[in-house]
Amino acid sequence: MNFEIQGTLIVKNDTQVISDRFKKREFVIEKKESSPNGFEFVDTIKFQLTQDKCSLLDSYELGNDINVAFNIRGNKWEKNGQTSYFVNLDAWKIEGASAGAPAPQASSSSAPPPPPASDAPAEESFGDDLPF
Question: What is the residue-averaged pLDDT of the chain?
Answer without folding.
Answer: 81
